[in-house]
C-alpha cells in the first residue's frame, strides 16, 4: 500500500496565549500543498523503516514508526511492517513532513485492517503523535486553534506558490522558547483573513498574511527576509515564513512569475519548488 502525503504551509500564524504546560495557544490558517512524500507500508517479519534522505532517523524516533506502534497497541495488531518513506518534503522546514508521514501510517493501517475509523477518531490518535498531525485528515484550507487540534474547514484557497527552504536548521522548540509574547507588535487579523479566504479574495489574503514566529527567526536568520524580498520583487502578492521556519513561500497570481522567481532562487537555494495549493490531506 502506498500513501501520498502532502506538505503544509501556514498562511498565517498567531500566538494567542500559553497553556499551563508551556505549550503556546495558536490561531493559524493551514493549507496543504502539492509537494508530496510517499509512504509504502508492507507486512514484514520485523519492524523496519527506511528513507531516501539521510537526515531522517530510521529508528523508533521516526514519527511514522511511532504511529505504527500506537496503532498496533490500540487495535491489537500483531503483524509487523516495513515502512518505506520517499522523502521529497524538506526536513525540519516548517512544512510538517514528519506529521504528514504519521497521518499516512494511521490512514494506511485503517484501510489495511478495515478499522472503519472516522476522521475524528484518526485525528484523536494523530494528536498523540504531534499537534500538526490531525490537520492532515482534513487537508485543504483550515483554521487551526488550540495547539493545532481544533480545526475548522474554510473555503479551499486556490493559488500558485513558490516554496523555498534555505539551508539552515531552525528548531521549533527554540523558536517557541525565544518568542516574547508581549513584544509582538503586529498580529494577523485572523477574522479578516478568514473573510478574504471565504470570499476567494486571494490578493487581500496575500497582503494580510502574518506569522508572529518570524519575530524570532528573521532576527537570527536574515536570509529568510532576503528570500521574502526576492519573492516580492518577482511579483508575489505576499510572502511569509511557514510555521517555525525556515521555509518561505510566496503567493503568485501568475504561474509564469512563479517560475521566474523559482529560477532566480534556484541559483543559491537547492530546495525550491513551484507548487499549487490542494484541497485534500492524506
Ligand atoms: C510551528 C508549527 C505550526 O504549524 O509547525 P512546524 O513549524 O513544526 O511545521 C507547529 O506549531 C509545531 O507544532 P509541533 O509539531 O507539535 O511541534 P514540536 O516540534 O512537537 O514541538 C517542539 C516544542 O515546541 C514547543 N511548542 C510546540 C507547539 C506549540 N503549540 N507550542 C509550543 O510551545 C514545545 O516546547 C515543544 O516541545
Ligand atoms: N518521518 C519523518 N520525516 C521527517 N522528519 C522526521 C520524521 N520522523 C522524525 N523526524 C525528525 O523530526 C524533525 C522535524 O522534522 P519535520 O517534521 O520535517 O519538520 P517540521 O516540524 O519543521 O515541520 C526532524 O529534525 C527529524 O529528525
From TrEMBL:
EC number: 2.7.1.148
Residues annotated to bind ATP: 90-100
Location of the GHMP kinase C-terminal domain: 194-268
Domain GHMP kinase N-terminal: residue ranges: 62-140
Catalytic residues, chain numbering: 8, 132
Keyword Transferase (UniProt): yes
InterPro entries assigned to the protein according to its UniProt record, in alphabetical order: GHMP_kinase_C_dom (IPR013750), GHMP_kinase_C_sf (IPR036554), GHMP_kinase_N_dom (IPR006204), IspE (IPR004424), Ribosomal_Su5_D2-typ_SF (IPR020568), Ribsml_uS5_D2-typ_fold_subgr (IPR014721)
One Gene Ontology term from the biological process aspect of the record: isopentenyl diphosphate biosynthetic process, methylerythritol 4-phosphate pathway
Protein family: Belongs to the GHMP kinase family. IspE subfamily.
Protein name: 4-diphosphocytidyl-2-C-methyl-D-erythritol kinase
Native source species: Thermobrachium celere DSM 8682
Amino acid at each position: 500500500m502506498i500513501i501520498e502525503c502532502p506538505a503544509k504551509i501556514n498562511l498565517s500564524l498567531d500566538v494567542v496565549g500559553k497553556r499551563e504546560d508551556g505549550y503556546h495557544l495558536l490561531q493559524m490558517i493551514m493549507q496543504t500543498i502539492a509537494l508530496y512524500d510517499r509512504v509504502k507500508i508492507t507486512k514484514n517479519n520485523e519492524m523496519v523503516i527506511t528513507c531516501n534522505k539521510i537526515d531522517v532517523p530510521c529508528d523508533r524516533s521516526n514519527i511514522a514508526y511511532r504511529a505504527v506502534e500506537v496503532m498496533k497497541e490500540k487495535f491489537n495488531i500483531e503483524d509487523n511492517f516495513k515502512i518505506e518513506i520517499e522523502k521529497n518534503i524538506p526536513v525540519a522546514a516548517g512544512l510538517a513532513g514528519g506529521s504528514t508521514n504519521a497521518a499516512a501510517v494511521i490512514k494506511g493501517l485503517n484501510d489495511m485492517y478495515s478499522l472503519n475509523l472516522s476522521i475524528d477518531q484518526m485525528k484523536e490518535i494523530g494528536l498523540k503523535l504531534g499537534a500538526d498531525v490531525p490537520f492532515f485528515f482534513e487537508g485543504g484550507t483550515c483554521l487551526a486553534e488550540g495547539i493545532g487540534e481544533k480545526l475548522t474547514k474554510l473555503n479551499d484557497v486556490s493559488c500558485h506558490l513558490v516554496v523555498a527552504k534555505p539551508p539552515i536548521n531552525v528548531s521549533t522548540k527554540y523558536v517557541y522558547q525565544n518568542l516574547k509574547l508581549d513584544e509582538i507588535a503586529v498580529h494577523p487579523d485572523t477574522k479578516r483573513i478568514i473573510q478574504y479566504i471565504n470570499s476567494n479574495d486571494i490578493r487581500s489574503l496575500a497582503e494580510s498574511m502574518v506569522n508572529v514566529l518570524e519575530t524570532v527567526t528573521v532576527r537570527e536568520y536574515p536570509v529568510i527576509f532576503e528570500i521574502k524580498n526576492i519573492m516580492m520583487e518577482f511579483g508575489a502578492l505576499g510572502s511569509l515564513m511557514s510555521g517555525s521556519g525556515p521555509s518561505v513561500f510566496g503567493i503568485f497570481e501568475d504561474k509564469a512569475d512563479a517560475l521566474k522567481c523559482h529560477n532566480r532562487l534556484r541559483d543559491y537555494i537547492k530546495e525550491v519548488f513551484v507548487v499549487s495549493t490542494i484541497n485534500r490531506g492524506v
